[in-house]
Amino acid sequence: MEFFIQILVAGVVIGSIYAIVALGFTLIYKSTGVVNFAQGELLLVGAYICLQLTVEYKLNFVISFFVTLLFMFIFGFLVEKIFLRKMIGEPIISIIMLTIGLSSVFKSLVQLIWGTDTKTFPQIFSEEPVEIGNITISYVYIFSIISVAVFLIIFSVFFKKTKVGIAMRAVASDQQAALSMGIDVKRIFALSWAIAAVVSSVGGILIGNINGINTSLSQFGLKVFPVVILGGLDSILGAIVGGLIIGILENIAGGYIDPIIGGGAKDVFPFIFMIVILMIKPYGLFGTVEVEKV
Amino acid sequence: MANRDIILDVNKVYLNFGGILAIAGVSFKVYKGEIFSIIGPNGAGKTSILNTITGIYFPSKGKILYKGKDITKMPVHKRSTMGLVRTFQNLELFKGMTVLDNLMLSRHNFLNYGLISSIFYFGKTLKQEVIHRKRVEEVIDFLNLSSYRKKHVFELSYGIQKRVELARALCLEPELILLDEPMAGMNSEETEDMARYIIDINEEMGVTVILIEHDMNVVMDLSSRVMALDFGEKVCEGLPEEVAKDKRVISAYLGEEKWI
Amino acid sequence: MNYTNCGDFKTSYKKDTEIYQSLFSKISIYSFLVFLFILPFFIDDYFLYLLNIIMIAIIGAVGLNILTGITGLISLGQGAFVGVGAYAAGYISNKFGLNFILVIPIAGFITALVGMVFGIPSLRLKGLYLSIATLAAQFILEFVFIRAESITGGVTGLSLDYANFFNIHLDNDFKFYFFALLLTIILVTAAKNIVRTKIGRAFLSIRDNYIAAEAMGINIFQYKILSFGISSFYAGVAGAMWAYYVTIITPEHFTIGVSIQYLSMIIIGGLGKILGSIFGAIFITILPEILRFVADQFTSNFPFLTQAFASIREAAFGIVIILFLLFEPEGIVRRWNLIKAYFKLWPFSY
Fold first, then answer.
1. Do the chains contact at C199 and B107, CB–CB below 8 Å?
2. What is the ipTM of this complex?
3. Cystine design at C13: which of A190, B133, B259, C244 (Cβ 3.0–4.6 Å)?
4. Beta carbons within 8 Å of A129's beta carbon, 6+ residues apart
């Protein structure tokens, strides 16, 4: 039982990180229609920038955290402006390939600059875990869950209340109509990339604090697919719920199935689960069902 | 009229879209050899009826009989092999293919060779391709498309594309052809051409036509019978002159003023 | 892009269906094939090695182009399907001792079957959802390669004997070359024939407009599955050839990265064009070799280059894809047609 709860807690933590990365993915897909295969690399870049600032430039973690967010905002903005802008109207496969190309460029740049060894953040949180009943939870976990929750709340308020947030929702629902209502759709596109880069880097920094950083972190970008498919490609709520479910399931598979077959189930299980979900609910839990019209 | 063969029998068809009733219990019969027009304001359910007949949507209630056979739940792709063929309101051509390939595609179910002989190509496949190419060329001649044969569809003008779509439907050797606004967006000359083609298809090839069209002159000139729809319900049905005089049709669709 | 030669009138529909419409193009293609058969007598092993892996890549890329370029179903699992073919070939050849002439088609059919099973979600899925399902296929198969040790040998891999053709062992690049060339010619011709007949037209119609395709009497599910089958057959044959070429099969040759390489081949070469897959396969296979050659020139001055080479290659790969997508989105095949069109009227281009 205790083992199960430990797994559950780890699952929620990983799941909340999945959720925030998936949020970035969904944001881009929803407003620009682009499937971003470079999501994991955005996470990677963010994590390494923060690491560089904290370790090499000896900045306070909180400061470097926010500087990273600012940097990633600009980074995402520029990526859209330089590369994605030119691809508007191209077929899906070309856009997918472009993001794949970007992902391999980013990843190898990170490798060139920081090497392939695993690096760790300096100890920021107390090593001593919190004990609640029989369960031990480390501070990093608590910090992760809280900060993901805070970000999610900020975003829901942003989309519901602010002018820009509402404009983004308008673009998501109908680009043409939004354009004719005087919304600068191009700016919204760039903005969604910027925000997506920011949220992914939050995920990257959190996971970096838990496990350390190396280039295999970009795997998160692929893990996002089961999450967003489960939730529905274009649903923000789906990204959050899907993230938590996949995080928990993955850890259960890792905890109970891996010892039997000797590893690997943790990584493949989300994908098997995803196919099953797709066959039952082709548009995920909260995705918009496309109606064929002729 | 009643003693002629019924080719299509639509019986109390309902169609629901998540609570919205697109078609509310419409029944009508189409007789072999006639041109049957469906008119009505936008959103009256004309295209929805076409879609239920061709199987893009399955009706929530009711029955559709084609040549005496129940086709209500038949998969879309099987209907065209029975000679039940349609064109689309907003061009649904294969844009990346040439006109010729678009038309040859319609011969798909007439070409009876398999994957293996297709790989070897020479022999059966080549012979069949040539035979059916001849059939396609007849349609190309009929609709005057010969100068566009090798062009990709996306290069062509709207009016030509409409004609290609008609040609594609004809290559399926239809017995009943459903035309969804074939004249929409055409100038008067193109409209006239299209009207002539429709008459030819009906009279020379003996194809029964169901026509959805907003151009009242065309409808009144071509049709054997007309049915008017409004809000998914049948308003009236009858000879063109009768429908044109019907009070409900005038108030629902044609407007109060004298329209001719 | 249909240039017809002046004065080149067809007198029968049969003539009009030919791939090479003019005498000149017929002569050029046949002499090129003859050239390919005598080429190995004049080049060294390194170039033979390059040509061999290019031909394997061509077969895989042609298969993927049938699925992705022609049927419009984006697959992120071609690399894994190549792996299925390789393992199937290795397992059958070791277990039953069959000759490679039988093993290669059997491996192809097994892969086709696996591909069709993973194509079943296309019954309900469309577009992006389907391509993500193929991504799942990639990861599930990778997992199987590593975990099903009794068949695949796990991470240590599976070894098999060189192919044996009537007591001629295809154990070097030179001998393998002729076999690979023959198979490539057969499979590329077969693909071209599939594409220009009714099956290819059905595939194209599904890509362009599946609703209309269905209304025109195409059973789209059946054809989507068939497309998965044909595409995976090609992948399987490519994998089996790879198995006989390297004779040791390990899972790291069939990762998502390989799938992405195949995708980039068809995009850079030209989506939906058989010729495009050939150009793309050549380009993507040669690219790292060129990079290696360039890097070698500088390693004496900059020794760190050797360590960073993997990253540089990766980055160059990404940059090339991006540049192509931004500046030549229709691929090398378009360039090729432009050049051909230019020389058609050369030197009097008006």
1. no
2. 0.89
3. B133
4. A136, A137, A138, A139
DSSP secondary structure letter of residue C251: G
What are the helix (H) ranges across B145-187?
158-170
The amino acid at residue C330 is: E
In chain C, domain spans? 42-344
Question: How many whole angstroms separate alpha carbon C182 and alpha carbon A135?
Answer: 66
Q: Do B47 and A294 touch (CB under 8 A)?
A: yes
Per residue in B78-121, pLDDT tens?
999 899 999 998 889 999 899 999 999 999 999 988 899 999 88
Distance from CA of C150 to the nearest CA of A (A): 13
Find, among A109, A121, A111, the residue nearest to A207 by Cα.
A121
Chain segment C330-344, per-residue pLDDT in tens:
899 999 988 888 887
Architecture of domain B1-83+173-260: 3-Layer(aba) Sandwich (3.40)
How far is residue A17's CA from residue A20's CA, in Å, rounded to a whole number? 5
At the topology level, CATH places domain C42-344 in: ABC transporter involved in vitamin B12 uptake, BtuC (1.10.3470)
| Residue C49 falls in which region: left (phi positive, over 0), alpha (psi -120 to 50) or beta | alpha
Optimal mutation site among B74, B121, B127, B178, interface C, most CBs of chain C within 10 A: B121
pLDDT at C344: 76
Percent of chain A at pLDDT above 90?
29
Tell whether B80 lies on the interface with C, counting CB pairs under 8 A: yes
What does the alpha-carbon distance between residue B180 and residue B167 come to, in Å, rounded to a whole number? Answer: 14
* Closest residue of chain C to B78, computed from CA coordinates: C217
DSSP state of C161: P
B-proximal residues of C, 149-208, CB under 8 Å: 190, 193-194, 197-199, 201-202, 204-205, 207-208
Smallest CA-to-CA distance from C294 within C286, A114, C281, A107 is with: C286
Q: Are B185 and B158 in contact (CB under 8 A)?
A: yes
| CB C92, CB C287: distance < 8 Å | no
Residue of B242 and C345 predicted with greater confidence:
B242
Could you give the angle at the alpha carbon of A285 between the alpha carbons of A284 and A286, nearest 5°? 100
Contacts of C263 in chain A (CB under 8 A): 93, 97, 100
**pLDDT higher at A88 or C194:** C194
Q: Does C273 touch chain B (CB under 8 A)?
A: no
B155: pLDDT strictly greater than 60:
yes
Q: What pLDDT, on a 0 to 100 scale, did the predictor assign at position B256?
A: 55
Query: Which of residues 323 through 342 in chain C touch A, CB cutoff 8 A?
Result: 325-326, 329
Chain C residue numbers with beta carbons less than 8 Å from the beta carbon of B85 are 215
What is d(CA C194, CA A288) in angstroms, rounded to the nearest whole number? 37
Interface partners of C (3+ CB pairs, < 8 Å)? A, B
Residue that has been written with the tokens 């970009």 in this structure: A218
| Model confidence pLDDT, tens digit, residues A96-122 | 899 999 999 999 999 888 888 888 888
Minimal Cα–Cα distance from A254 to chain B, Å? 42
Residue A261 above 90 pLDDT? no
pLDDT digit string, tens, across residues C289-319:
988 888 888 777 777 767 777 788 888 899 9
> Looking at the predicted structure, is the pLDDT value of residue B259 above 60?
no
Does the pLDDT at position C209 exceed 50?
yes
| Phi (first) and psi of residue C171, to 5 degrees | -105, 5
User: From the centroid of its chain, how far is CA A117?
Assistant: 23
> What φ, ψ does residue C221 adopt, rounded to 5°?
-65, -45
- Over residues B142-153, the mean pLDDT reads 91
Q: Nearest CB to A264: which of C68, C136, C143? A: C143
User: Is pLDDT of A92 > 80?
Assistant: yes
Give dist(CA A111, CA C253) in Å, integer.
21
Residue A210 φ/ψ, nearest 5 degrees: -85, -50
Q: What is the mean pLDDT of chain A?
A: 87
